[in-house]
Amino acid sequence: MKIDNSQVVREVDPRASRDLVRLLALVMTLVGGLGLYAWPHLKIRETSRAQDRMSSERERLLEANRKLRLEKASLENLRRVEAIATRDLGLQSPPAGRVIVIEPPRPAANGAQMAKDLGGSPGTSPLAAGERN
Length: 133
What we know:
By secondary structure, the protein is mostly helical. The protein contains 3 helices and no strands. The longest helix has 63 residues, at 14-76. The protein is rod-shaped, with a radius of gyration of 46 Å. The chain starts with 13 loop residues before the first helix and ends with a helix. The relative contact order is 0.03.
């Protein structure tokens, strides 16, 4: 004997769907709690790694700065510059008669005035400029 179940309609058990919703809510609550627990720890680890990277970068930059300061000091050495100019570039020192030494101007004494500040034209004395007025 053969049983025909094609006409059978299956009823949905309301308790089963309610249990499924409760299970999903419980799982989502657990996953959310785990996420909230793990998030600060992950951020702390990420920050620690970034700090380590920045610290090593700082050390690298300090070393590069030290090397650049040494190179600058060696490039500012006038004897070295003169040696390179004569050896590598073939330059020679000028004869003694063609050497012009330019000294920086000395600061004026307190309260001193320059002649040009007194109102005279070039080549005239301040006294002569005062007589014209």
